Amino acid sequence: MSNLPKIAWIGLGIMGSPMAENLIKAGYTVTGYTLEADKLERLAAAGGTAATSVADAVTDADVIITMVPASPHVEAIAYGPDGILAHARRGALLIDMSSITPQTSVDLAKAAADKGIRVLDAPVSGGEAGAVEAVLSIMAGGAQADFDAARPILEALGKTIVLCGPHGAGQTVKAANQLIVAVNIQACAEAVVFLEKSGVDLTAALDVLGGGLAGSTVLTRKKDNFKNRDFQPGFRIDLHHKDMGIVTDAARTVGAALPVGTLVASLVASLRAQGDGGLDHSALLRGVERLSGHTTED
Predict the structure, then answer these.
(1) Nearest to residue 29, comparing CAs of 60, 53, 54?
(2) Do strands 124-125 and 136-141 pair parallel, antiparallel, or not at all (unpaired)?
(3) Rg of the chain's alpha carbons, rounded to an integer?
(4) pLDDT tens across 209-256, in order?
(5) Residues annotated as part of the active site
(6) What is this structure's pTM?
(7) Which of 42, 169, 179, 222 could form a disulfide with 165 if both were Cys (CB 3.0 to 4.6 A apart)?
(8) 3-class SS at 36?
(9) In angstroms, what CA-CA distances link 208 with 182, 220, 223, 242, 274?
């Protein structure tokens, strides 16, 4: 029998499925729940156990990990008679790896404490590839002791793992991360259109740019998306739109100006309004192409 903590995993999407599978590979017992039957079948095929409900998944768990799209989803699975707080045992550790508002994380930690449940907010960065390769950057908020307890689990999921402060701090850092990523993708997209319109060899140009100060993880991860116009979602525009709403609202609350970020947020919203919300966020290239009268769309 394994001495490792038993894990309940709620949310088996593009990121959640490979992350849960990495925990199984690391020797953890994982019971998962999500709304999509095929994702539950995938978990079972990887050696996990498919639960029939949130309550079924969390009842016997030592650690509960949630990975769902937004604050309303976290609230839906956490609260109410069928939620996590109603069925998790006292002393369990709830690690929310969703990207939500900092205030939602603070409120969840307070409500969970009343039930004797410990909480960390631990959103991630790295996209689908980072989830598959277990090299995610994980930014946590909560108590040091809970972070220390969670660290072995987090080390099976990511490479850079940092406690950023109290409850909500992880989500604040994630919001900043999404601001940087969106602005970076937009800049890369503009450069791609500029280069192509100038008649430069795009592959050669991106290779040399990637080796200089303009190089970034975004450029490395997304250059093939740009070159091939491959916008299969690793991280959807819909979700980045949600995250840009989080960061612009949080910045307004603390009095921080985001002049470039606000512009990019509007470009993300525009792309979504044009029907591209289900595409990867590298599809910001499509918006630049439309504005430039240069498009490879069907």
Answers:
(1) 60
(2) antiparallel
(3) 20
(4) 999 999 999 999 999 999 999 999 989 999 999 999 999 999 999 999
(5) 174
(6) 0.91
(7) 169
(8) coil
(9) 22, 11, 12, 33, 33
Q: Over 50: is that where the pLDDT of 14 sits?
A: yes
Q: How confident is the model over 130-165, as pLDDT tens digits?
A: 999 999 999 999 999 999 999 999 999 999 999 999
First to last CA, the chain: 56
**Amino acid identity, residue 191?**
A
Structure tokens at 201: 């060899």
DSSP-derived secondary structure letter, 276: I
The DSSP secondary structure of 149-186, one letter per residue, reads HHHHHHHTTEEEEEEEESTTHHHHHHHHHHHHHHHHHH
Nearby residues of 62 by Cβ (< 8 Å), 6 or more positions away: 5, 6, 7, 92, 93
Residue position matching structure tokens 């970076």: 184
Burial class (CB in 10 A: 0-12, 13-18, 19+), 73: middle
